[in-house]
Structures are given as C-alpha cells and as structure tokens.
Description:
Blueprint (H helix, E strand, L loop, with lengths): L13 H15 L6 E7 L5 E6 L10 H19 L14 H22 L3 H20 L42 E2 L5 E2 L2 E6 L21 H9 L1 H16 L5 E7 L5 E7 L5 H10 L1 E4 L16 E3 L6 E3 L10 H6 L6 E4 L4 E6 L4 H10 L16 H15 L46 E3 L8 H17 L17 E5 L10 H27 L4 H5 L1
Antiparallel strand pairs: 1-2, 1-14, 3-4, 5-7, 5-12, 6-7, 6-13, 8-11, 9-10
Amino acid sequence: MTSSxxxxxxxxxxxxxxxxxxxxxIELGACIRPLAVRRIDTxxxxxxxxxxxxxxxxxxxxxxxxxxxxxxxxxxxxEGWHVDTEPQITTAEPTAEQHALIGYRADLEHAHTAATLAxxxxxxTEIEDAIHDANAMLRGAGVRGSADTKTGKRRKVRSTxxxxxxxxxxxRRIAPTTxxxxxxxxxxxxxxxSTFLTLxxxxxxxxxxxxxxxxxxxxxxxxxxxDAIHFGLLVDRFWQNLRRAEGWNVQYFATVEPQKRGAPHLxxxxxxxxxxxxxxQVAAATYHQVWWPxxxxxxxxxxxxxxxxxxxxxxxxxxxxxxxxxxxxDQACADLAEPTHVVRFGTQVNIQGVLGGSREAGSALxxxxxxxxxxxxxxxxxxxxxxxxxxxxxxxxxxYEPCSSRCPNWLHYGVAPEGGKAATAPGLCxxxxxxxxxxxxxxxxxxxxxxxxxxxxxxxxxxxxxHVLRTLGAVGTTPERLTPxxxxxxxxxxxxxxxxxxxxxxxxxxxxxxxxxxxxxxxxQQARDQAExxxxxxxxxx
Length: 542
C-alpha cells in the first residue's frame, strides 16, 4: 500500500495506531515507552509480562514519566523547606551483598597495583574495566559515594590560603541546627521564614534581550565555556563557605538552569533566614581554582596531533615530529605555580524572604522545577538568528575545551590524557559537557542537601505509594501492583530481551500499560469518592 492510498475502513495503519496510543497514554499519565519485565511467582511458578514505566526525566522522551518526576521533586522541596523540627536520618547497616562487593572492589585495587608495578599494561587495562563494572554494581546495590579511586597516585597538596584578590568570609557563632530562626510578631504569633536565592555567573560581554552578544568578536566565549564546565564545583564551594560563615548546617534544595545567554545559574530554596549582607559577602568571597595544565593556546594542530606508539613496553602518546613521549596529565600539573582558571560568581545576587504556606512559597517551588523536564539547551529556544548563532559558537568552543583529566582534547595542548588509547581523538569526547544539549554544564540539575527532609527521593516516592495504599485499603481495594512489603520475596523479576519468544510487541505493551493505568485511576477515584461521601445505611438499604 502506497502513502497515497487511503486506509481501509475499519483498519488503522500501525504508525497512526501508535500515535493514538501515545496520545491516550499521555492523557491518562501512562508511560509511552514502557519496559517489558517478566514477573515469576516463586510459589506457583506463574510467569507474567508486566509493563513498567521507563522513568525518563525529560519530556521529549516521555512526558508522563517526566511530569511524575517533577511532581515528586516539588513534594520533596515543599516537605523540607519550612520544617520546625530537625530531620532525622537513619542509616541502614551494610548488607552481606554490599560487604561482598566492597571486598571484591578492594581485591581489584590490589591486583591493579600489582599489574601496574609489573608493567603489564594489558592486564592493568582489563582490571580497570572490571573496577568500572564493580563500581556500577556498588551503585546498584545502594552504596552512596564514589569508590572510583586511582591506585598508586598521591593527591597533589595545594595551599589552602585564600587568594589575596578574594573578599573575606564573615564569621558567626556555631549553632548545631539545620532549622531557621523563629521570629515573633507584635501580636504574639510566631513564624519561621525562609530564603529563595539566585546566583549567576559574571558577564562575558554585553548581551541583547534575546541573549546574543552585542559584539560577538569581543564576547569571551572561552571563559564562558570554562565557567560552565566548572560551575558545579563553584556551587559546592559556595555551600561549604556559607556553612562555615554562618556557623550552622545550612540546608538547601537547588536547581541549575540556563540563562538566555547560555550561562548556567542557580536557584535555591534555603531553610531559614540568613542576612542579605552575609549572602552577598559569601557569594563575592567564593571561588574555585582549576589546577589543570595550561590550555589557552593549542600546540598541536589537527594535522600534527600526537600518535599512539604501541611498539614500546608501555604504549604511550609520542610527538609526531620528535617521537618523544608526551608529558602525562599528572606531570603537566606537577610544576604549576598558579591555577590556569578561576571561577567566580557575578555581582547579580537575588535574595527573597518567603513564608511557608504563602503564595510566594508556591510560586518559588514551581519556579524551582520549571525546567527540570527539559534539557538545558531546550529551556530557552533561540528567538532570533543572532541568538542561534551565539549558541552555535558557544557549542563549538565547548567541543575542543577540556572537560576532565581524561578528555581527549588534551592532545591539542601537548598533554597525554589519563586512560588514553589508540582510538582517542580530540573533538570526539563523550563527556556531557561537550554535548549541545548540556551547554557545558555536566553536573546534576537538582541539588538537595542530605538533611533537607531526612529522606531520599525513593523515600518520598514510597510515601506517595503508601498514601494510595491507604486510600484504596480504606474501601477494601488493593491493586496487584501495590503488594505489601512482606510479600516482596515472593516474586522474581527478569528483564524481557527482544530475542525472547514471549517478548510483546511495543504497541501491545503500550496498550497494556494504558489499560492498567486506566484501571488504577478508576479504582483510586472511586476510593476517594467513597471516602469523601460514604454511603449511609439508609442509602445502602435503598
């Protein structure tokens, strides 16, 4: 059937059926990209294919899943912003699986050290891959933090003395608290206000209302790219300085969003009040020094890049002209007397006081998560050709700017990147900072302090499920999906591979998800209606 032929009556072409199903799923809030999972009942041996949500956080991939993630973040932000009691964190004891994985990870470190000292490059590379897999297994087992260490390397100790061109930090008396100060009104009413803070990066040149520079040739694209790459570390330093200056454990819920000019900036809900003068002082005194090899001027053009020499006992990059080995990244950093780049905040600091439960608090919460369902580049679409050209120039600058010690772009500056291989090539780094949708910022979009609400995001998700369970349980209805925790060991879960004979068609799986979502919504709505308007005995008899 050609595209010009009409669709027969009573039949729907597969592409159109898929579009209709996705539109229905979005209307009902069901995932449009469900994953097929096989559930095995260990008691009866019965096997069932169940569609589960993809869990995407971007609306261009799955709008319903992204919206659920955004609503969950709103609940998390609201719950911890104006609390009047100290959130308590309970740490679980390590499980036997976690203990075993940590021991396995330590054995790999010892084996990597032995292979490196013996000069066995192939064995060391193989163990590095095993260490990477072990780190992924640790994260999957729920171990917090990073176990990715570099064996045999000593950390370069830098001076912690503050820069002479930086402002001094204010100091206040230490108080062991995370909640804000309580104020009392003349009428005796007590209230506990909080703070909404916005921090931006400095100017790189005058810009128009659409975010494009007035003079593109004078705009400092290199500094803008470097500031975006290291913005996450600057934000971390700000929270450290703020806690030291204020003397109490400041708690925050923050998001990183782009401005129209493409530079990232920070919106933060801070629990409690901090003097505006102190916040501006801490922002002005905060900086992050980048101790990387000099990379202002390229020393190797594309046609004269270093080559990988695998004829040596230990393969390495060598200069194309002299055949001399390139200095490693550590060697290039060893003799640095000054940092190659210093990141600072700009002078624009916006501070607002917010009361819990007020209209301003609701507006601030919605503004915090306004762009979380979008990629950074999609938050502000270029309104003019000059704005689009500005984004293109910034993206091109980021393409060849080093993003880490392992970035292949170091070859442009005569430095061998860490973990380099024969296939390493500048301009082809897979780091997030180089992707156009990230505009240089490779960190997390949502930043939440550990004692914000005393719960993880999984805990907040469980709270929402418990609320649904209570509502349904009040009328004697419990969906199969929401099984009690004491029956969790009854089922085994397996991913369904495309090659499996029982793998359902994608359209069929989507229709299953729609039917399941409609059934759940109907049950929940009926339970709510029955709880709000319970039937009397007379009505029941009638």
